[in-house]
Write a structure and sequence with these properties.
Distance between the termini: 89 Å
Helix content: 40-55%
Order of helices and strands: HEEEEHEHEHEEEHEHEHEEEHH
Radius of gyration: 26 Å
Strand content: 15-25%
Length: about 270
């Protein structure tokens, strides 16, 4: 009988240790999760600067003045507002030039905390990144030479259209052309200045991207057609795991919407 009691006591001790072990494991997981959720903001505060991927070839959104080397625009001001929210100082930002093709990979490898670079929110992209609520809405548009005689997409049968690599413009125009029964071809470029140069030299017949971006390249020899295709909503993107950072960004944007500060920025930069 005594032997049975000893075995029972040993069994109870083993089970207790297993329960404690399981409990400890769960607590550690939660602690790690909590720590991970806070780590994205803490990393920025410890570093003392918010790293942001921005465009440097989109006048009024993010543009580098070749004379001064200074980058400014509405999206730079938005980055400053977020830096002020996190670090208490709008000047604590470190901007890095991105293109439509590089902005995702730079977020993936952690070289930037945020991308604020005319980044259109799509369901597909939301699978890979956190996106804030939209801070600007535009539509895909078409720029052609004034002397081309082109009045609309229906006049572009057999024409070449220049678009940015990895941008949403190509699909928007493809869908619209198919609907109108128009056959067009595309050439893809790394930057917007390259597309404009191709239009000026006659390599392409049309430059297509969002209307507000095209206005930055409008000159006396070109015209932007009136039609707009597929609304493009711009959002601030962050790495999927950085949920705390995504919330701070979204709260900042929505506070700016409520206060009217976002509208003032859009007016300040003459965006339409």
């Amino acid at each position: 009988m005594k032997k049975v009691s000893i075995l029972a006591a040993v069994f109870v001790m083993i089970m207790s240790l297993l329960v404690i072990g399981c409990g400890s494991s769960g607590s550690n997981s939660n602690a790690g999760k909590d720590s991970g959720q806070a780590a994205d903001i803490k990393a920025i505060k410890d570093r003392g600067v918010l790293k942001v991927g921005v465009k440097v070839d989109v006048p009024k959104f993010g543009f580098k003045d070749p004379a001064t080397g200074k980058v400014d625009g509405m999206e730079i001001d938005l980055a400053k507002a977020i830096a002020k929210k996190i670090l208490g100082d709008e000047n604590k930002i470190d901007v890095q030039a991105v293109t439509a093709k590089t902005r995702g990979p730079l977020l993936d490898n952690g070289e930037v905390d945020l991308v604020i670079a005319t980044f259109t929110i799509t369901d597909e992209r939301k699978q890979s990144y956190n996106f804030s609520d939209p801070y600007f809405t535009d539509g895909v548009a078409l720029m052609v030479k004034k002397n081309s005689g082109i009045q609309s997409l229906k006049d572009m049968n057999g024409k070449k259209i220049g678009v940015a690599q990895s941008a949403t413009s190509k699909k928007a125009i493809q869908d619209a052309a198919a609907k109108d029964g128009v056959k067009v071809s595309f050439l893809e470029f790394g930057t917007y200045p390259e597309i404009k140069t191709a239009l000026d030299s006659g390599r392409i017949d049309c430059f297509s991207v969002d209307g507000a971006i095209l206005f930055g390249y409008l000159d006396d020899s070109t015209v932007i057609l009136a039609d707009r295709y597929t609304p493009q909503e711009y959002g601030v993107a962050s790495k999927k795991a950085n949920t705390n950072l995504a919330k701070v960004v979204n709260d900042t944007i929505n506070d700016m919407k409520k206060s009217g500060e976002l509208d003032k920025l859009i007016q300040k930069w003459g965006l339409k």
